[in-house]
Design a protein that fits this description.
158 residues; alpha+beta; 7 strands
Length: 158
């Protein structure tokens, strides 16, 4: 009987997770994810980098182009930097919302907190795995790095 209950509970969990993925709306202009925000007052990625050069955190709106999304369930995105820098990681507050796969290439405004912090090798490898990187790319991550990380409360597609 315990096995039957466990099996039933697992099936319900899988069904809920599958249904939740289908409810992520396609990335069209004006679509909101998480907290409702407006694009007004957003700063660009270069402006964010300039602010973080003199302060370790910034809270507000940031506009950028999405260049990557988590392949597993849309649990993070990366926004483009100017030049050759690695894209900036954006996660979502308390995993409260997720991004659709078609958001890559779209310009978004997100509201949240950006911080400069050290990202461990384990975290970098975890994000690389979720992004669908191959085993060689994941294995090549051998040192922690200091980078900008953003926790967003809300995202709107421009």
């Amino acid at each position: 009987m315990k096995r039957l209950i466990s099996l039933f509970t697992a099936l319900i969990g899988i069904a809920i997770a599958a249904h939740a993925q289908q409810d992520i709306p396609s990335a069209k202009p004006g679509i909101q994810y998480g907290k409702a925000i407006t694009p007004k007052g957003a700063i660009s990625v270069p402006q964010l980098e300039a602010k973080l050069a003199s302060d370790s955190s910034y809270t507000g709106k940031i506009e950028g182009q999405v260049v990557e999304v988590c392949k597993k369930k849309g649990c993070f995105i990366r926004i483009q930097r100017e030049g050759s820098g690695d894209p900036i990681l954006v996660r979502f507050k308390d995993y409260g919302f997720f991004m659709p796969q078609d958001i890559v290439g779209k310009t978004v405004v997100l509201e949240g907190q950006a911080k400069v912090k050290e990202v461990s090798v384990a975290q970098q490898r975890h994000f690389a795995e979720d992004a669908g990187k191959n085993a060689d790319e994941i294995a090549s991550i051998t040192e922690p790095k200091v980078d900008i990380n953003i926790i967003a409360d809300g995202v709107v597609v421009k």
